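Pasting as-is:
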Amino acid sequence: MGRGIGRGGFGGLGDMSKLLRQAQKMQEDMAAAQEELEKERVETTSGGGAVKAVVNGKGRLLEVVIKPEAVDPDDVEMLQDLIVTAVREAQEAADAEQSRRMQGLTGGMGLPPGLL
């Protein structure tokens, strides 16, 4: 018998098949999680609730709600800052949730972002 041939004459192909099945399952789970994130809504506010931003779980802006009392024609800059703050915080919250879910699926394998 030759050296390096291993189990059943196929080397580690049995292990490779198992690894491929696991990778396919992980990819399917990640696709389902991405779909769920697309439907999820994350809301944040700024200015004591004067401005609300709503994003989906992937961080895409869906809605901005501004209370009428937040609109001061003499201080448009303040309103702009409140909008940016609310949107940024909503996107950061969505990013954190997405990372948390993907970490759970990959089991902390340390895969680079976007690999699967």
